[in-house]
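DM from R.C. (forwarded with permission)

"hey, sorry to bug you on a friday — could you get me a structure for this? deadline for the figure draft is monday and I only need the backbone to look sensible"
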Amino acid sequence: QGKFTLLRDSRTDGSFLVHHFLSFYLRAGCKVCFVALLQSFSHYSIVAQKLGVSLTAAKEQGQLVFLEGLKSCLDLLFGEKEEQPGQPHPLQFVSESTPNLKALFDFVLASLTPAGADSWQGPVLLVDDLSVLLSLGATPVAVMDFMHYCRATICCQMKGNVVVLVHSNLESEDEEKELVVTSLCHHSDLILWVEGLLTGFCKDVHGQIKIIRRVSLELTGEQDQVKIYQYKIQDKNVTFFAPGLSAAVL
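My reply, with the result:
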């Protein structure tokens, strides 16, 4: 509890980690606010069904609050009605000249604040993918402010968890995105960094994952713990193994 986990991918797609954490926290009975900026609800729902979780049932029970970013942006830009009359749209910064993410933070806070009858285990914020906010016009400072308030409120005050996916590319010239990624790395308790293989595509090894536990955040003088595994994504699960020890090699 109270941890901030950063999911980072480069040269590959790390969205399988998002599906894992979503199904994991729902099965654990946590209250989840899912800010989905990359795919539609039906996409996440189909994958969750393979993992044995029903997103539709979780929404109906009030366990899952789902913000479908793609649809919300279209509704906002083309003048559709607000989801909750009288309240600002969570993504209203898209149509503002000086964008800030306060409305999005208020939406997250309202979604995760426990009501009287709630009996969920703990609040969880899941974001896929944070770098989309930059593409929609938010500044790096606004994105980092949003994440700072989410960490301070959900992790520190509410003792919940925050899990964020961000795409990065070390060779890209997108300075804003790399600035946000670097800053998030400094504030994370755990970094799961998924990378594609330098040697190119392989049908038996889909990439490698670097697991970085930020022990240095505890100011004990110890270095961060780093473990590296390779993985293969299957239909309903993911197989992990030490580098060079895949079943195809052995």
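R.C.: lifesaver. The beta strands are 4-10, 31-36, 64-68, 123-128, 161-167, 190-195, 207-213, 225-233, 238-241.
me: no worries. Helices lie at 15-27, 41-50, 55-60, 69-77, 102-112, 131-135, 140-157, 175-187.
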